[in-house]
Amino acid sequence: MDRLDMLEAESIYILREAYKSFGKLGMLWSVGKDSTVMLWLAKKAFFGHCPFPFIHIDTTYKIPEMIRFRDKIAKEYNLDLIVYTNWDAINNGMGPEKGRLVCCKALKTDALQHVIDKYKFEGLIVGVRRDEEGSRSKERIFSERNKESEWNYTNQPPELWDQFKTDFPKGNHIRVHPILNWTELDIWQYIKRENIPVVDLYFAKNGKRYRSLGCAQCTGQVDSNASTVDEIIEELKHTNINERAGRAQDREDAYAMQKLRKDGYM
Fold first, then answer.
1. Please, where are the H alpha helices in the chain?
2. Nearest CA to 122 among 189, 179, 170?
3. Quick one: pLDDT band at residue 153, thresholds 50, 70, 90?
4. pLDDT digit string (tens) for 105-141?
């Protein structure tokens, strides 16, 4: 059993354990590489049928190719897809010019909380990885939030020897992280092995490509000539550029993600 086999088996176990342990679950699907791999793992875990809906928070500022890819895959895989936009915030003029963190909170964090409240989700399955960003390294596989989805990152239970805590107070919200132990390189090697479709924004055109995807105004490209999955894998073996180097909110505030995640960000 190689590393990818072990990671896949762990992720499938986590997905099944979450389905067994919690009530109503939803899976966040941003359309990025990580959540698309997670979608693939969910299909494997439940033999081609995903027993929970997928949730896409649409800020209206996403790169158009992402929306086209979302709709194409949702139709091909016959996904139960919830698309939600915080139209109250949009109609009141919310956008990146208000400040990246302010905008992220209104159009992502608040929108997600609206979905949780509307559909009564007890838990969400989320495609975060420890190696991607500092605050995510503080996460657990099964991560407790309070009723408002707020995260106390200073009080996280130990998860030793793959013993996961799944017994939480009734009413609290749970985030489940099946690919927390994967790296960016693992993701791309698995995409290659499984031939998983991903949005073509990741592949270089004219010496530029995206490594991390988000809203168009807040997501920049990196210099790269990697135009195939194999070339991306080779590039990642040698790069010293941070995966989120193109994300504007990270540059605006070094603790941006921790602040957002503390308040319920995905």
1. 3-21, 33-45, 64-76, 87-91, 100-104, 110-119, 184-194, 229-236, 248-252, 256-262
2. 170
3. low
4. 899 999 999 999 999 999 999 999 988 765 656 778 8
3-state helix, strand, coil split of the chain in percent (to 5) is 45, 10, 45
At residue 258, the pLDDT reads: 55
Domain with CATH 3.40.50.620 in the chain: 3-183+255-262
**3-183+255-262 belongs to which CATH class?**
alpha beta
**Cα 5 to chain center, whole Å?**
21
pTM for this entry: 0.89
Question: Residue 182's pLDDT band (boundaries 50, 70, 90)?
Answer: very high
Alpha-carbon span 109 to 231, nearest angstrom: 35
